[in-house]
Amino acid sequence: MAKEDYYDLLGVARTASEDELKKAYRKKAVQHHPDKNPGDKAAEEMFKKISHAYEVLKDPEKRAAYDRYGHAAFEGPGAGGMRGRGGMSGGGFHDPFDIFREVFGQQGGGGGGIFEEMFGGGRDSGRDGSDLRYDLEITLEEAARGAEKEISFRKHVACEHCDGSGAEPGSKRVTCPTCRGAGQVRRSGGIITFTQSCPVCGGSGSKIEKPCTACHGEGRVTKTSKLNVRIPAGVDNGSRLRSSGNGEAGLAGGQPGDLYIVLSVKEHELFERQDDNLFCEIPIKFTLATLGGTIEVPTLFGKASLKIPAATQSGTTFRLREKGMPSLRGGRQGDQLVRVHVEVPHSLTAEQRKLLEEFARVSGDAAEPTSKTFFEKAKKFF
After folding, report:
1. Of 293, 289, 341, which Cα lies nearest the Cα of 317?
2. CA–CA separation, 151 vs 132, rounded Å?
3. DSSP letters spanning 293-309
4. Among 338, 345, 363, 349, residue whose Cα is nearest residue 287
5. Residue range(s) of every CATH 2.60.260.20 domain in the chain
6. What is the pLDDT of residues 248-301, one digit of tens each?
7. DSSP 368
8. Following DSSP, what letter does each residue of 134-200 receive, concatenated?
9. 96 CB neighbour count, 10 Å cutoff
10. Which fold has domain 272-375?
């Protein structure tokens, strides 16, 4: 059976650089490593093949011989001038796991490095706690002025009985009898032997002599925690506040996680927010719109005076400078935009009606209704 091309096995061109070869090998090795594919003989065989291919191509002398003679460079005594440097049968190749450890920065028989990050070994049993999220709803007034809130939530905290160690007071950690303190055990996969994290001690190399009766050896328990949260002025929907160290407690000395408070702002019955500006609509009397005057309008920070010019039309928008939302970035405060809606009275007294009719007569409205005049002028467009 024809042997597979080393370049094809790694998925690179024949002109690939040393860095490209190494990058391709790393990707393939992780994909086919036996620890990632337990019991898969095909993956194990492919892992050996790509390791041998990389072993040849990473060596400039071997690669030159392979490029010239192909697989024949490593077959038979003295073939291709590579005698003594050996082929797969001549013993000149490293164990595929040695090559893997070399590329991923491991030393010796399987300690630490990137290998442990991917497959879970390692001697350090400490694990940092998880981050938590808390959703908090606030009012628009609180978002504008800032506020302090007390929140309560359930989380893992360090066990007080064992002070987070997981061991019953007076007890201690002892060397793991399964791995004898190594943190790893060897496992055979056919002709290849490789290591994995000890299933008894989780890779720490030690175990608790007598687990804590309160937390059953975990080192933490679930409790309700309370926290005062300061909300800065200017926050908006989706704003996140980070409380460092107030997440889940870590395991075996690991650092606690963080708490993230995610804010949502209730809809306001009067104001609508757009960035740092506020919008509102207020009704005014038609006499005020006609004659003009000054009125007081509400803001999130109290009342403000607004001057209404004479002959103001319904839908006119006025701007109150810096009466909007504070800026989280420390810039200029937003504005409040006030749109006025001119109210028409629903009913009139006899005296009011008489006065309005007189006003209409004096204005010329009674002689020719505005609607009639408008349609007469609009005829030329149809």
Report:
1. 341
2. 13
3. EEEEEEETTEEEEEEE-
4. 345
5. 128-160+219-266, 272-375
6. 998 866 789 999 999 999 999 999 999 999 999 999 998 999 999 999 999 999
7. S
8. EEEEE-HHHHHH-EEEEEEEEEEEE-TTTTTSSBPTT--EEE-TTTTTSSEEEEEETTEEEEEE-TT
9. 22
10. HSP40/DNAj peptide-binding domain (2.60.260)
Domain with CATH 1.10.287.110 in the chain: 6-119
Nearest to 321 by CA among 307, 336, 308: 336
Residue of higher predicted confidence among 247 and 202: 247
Domain covering 128-160+219-266, topology: HSP40/DNAj peptide-binding domain (2.60.260)
Q: Could you report the per-residue pLDDT of 151-188, keeping only the tens digit for each?
A: 999 999 999 998 888 889 988 778 888 888 877 888 76
Confidence at 310, pLDDT banded by 50, 70, 90: very high
DSSP states along 26-51: HHHHHHH-TTTSTT-HHHHHHHHHHH
Q: What are phi and psi of 136, to 5 degrees?
A: -125, 125
Instruction: Return d(Cα 44, Cα 35) in angstroms, integer.
Output: 9
pLDDT (tens digit per residue) in 4-47: 899 999 999 999 998 899 889 988 988 888 777 777 889 889 99
User: Can you tell me the distance from the alpha carbon of 145 to that of 44, in angstroms, rounded to the nearest whole number?
Assistant: 64
Quote helix, strand, coil % in the chain, to nearest 5: 30, 25, 45
Coil, helix or strand for 130? coil
Among 344, 213, 356, smallest CA distance to 289 is for 344
β partners of residue 343: 285
Domain 6-119 has CATH 1.10.287.110: yes
Both tokens of residue 296?
A: 């007081």
Could you tell me if 212 and 166 are in contact, meaning their C-beta atoms sit under 8 angstroms apart? Answer: yes
**211 closest CA partner among 167, 158, 163, 160:** 167
Bridge partners for 296 per DSSP: 305
What letter would DSSP give residue 381?
Answer: G
